[in-house]
């Protein structure tokens, strides 16, 4: 099986998240691992690249991330939407979601967390400690990043005709929409005259 995962320049890693797709977070610590869906994930900074994710303090994922100090952040596709919904609809304390959903994983490069096959972008993240944290926000530095070269290269998404290879956005109640076609424009002229 051919591996389409190619490294992404860390200074450009946040471009993968700019369009706001749903994400999957993987975590592991002390022999336990988990995966959860997260619609609230966004880029925060460029160099070094940082991301913000929302992980409820009462979840197994949060416990594992706080214990290990790391997590994986992945972008699933439309073709992976059924699994994304299942991951987001079941609690990890009740079942081993990776095993129950027969999700294939591979080893991360720089952190000890399983990464998910079936996605098209992957971030390996180290938590930035924040003793004043009173919210469910987790800030992290991206220490490794790679993307599927069939849909991302030269720091740009290039989704083709295979709609199952597009990122998706979660609305609610099992409803998603897929990332649409791209288009380019030139900036409107700016009137430099004083008014």
UniProtKB/TrEMBL annotation:
The keyword Flavoprotein applies. One of its GO terms (molecular function) is FMN binding. Keywords: Flavoprotein. SUPFAM superfamilies: FMN-binding split barrel (SSF50475). Its cofactor is FMN. Belongs to the flavoredoxin family. This is Flavin reductase like domain-containing protein.
């Amino acid at each position: 099986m051919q591996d389409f995962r190619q490294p992404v320049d860390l200074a450009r890693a946040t471009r993968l998240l700019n369009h706001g797709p749903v994400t999957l977070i993987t975590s592991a610590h002390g022999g336990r691992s988990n995966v959860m869906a997260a619609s609230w994930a966004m880029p925060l900074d460029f160099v070094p690249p940082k991301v913000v994710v929302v992980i409820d303090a009462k979840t197994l994922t949060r416990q594992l991330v706080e214990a290990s100090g790391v997590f994986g952040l992945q972008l699933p596709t439309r073709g992976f939407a059924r699994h994304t919904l299942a991951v987001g609809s079941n609690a990890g304390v009740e079942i081993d979601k990776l095993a129950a959903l027969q999700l294939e994983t591979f080893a991360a490069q720089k952190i000890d967390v399983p990464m998910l096959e079936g996605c098209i972008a992957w971030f390996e993240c180290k938590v930035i400690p924040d003793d004043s944290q009173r919210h469910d926000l987790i800030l992290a530095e991206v220490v490794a990043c790679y993307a599927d070269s069939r849909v991302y290269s030269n720091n740009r998404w290039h989704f083709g005709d295979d709609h199952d290879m597009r990122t998706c956005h979660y609305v609610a109640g099992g409803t998603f929409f897929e990332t649409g076609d791209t288009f380019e424009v030139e900036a409107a002229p700016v009137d430099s005259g004083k008014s």
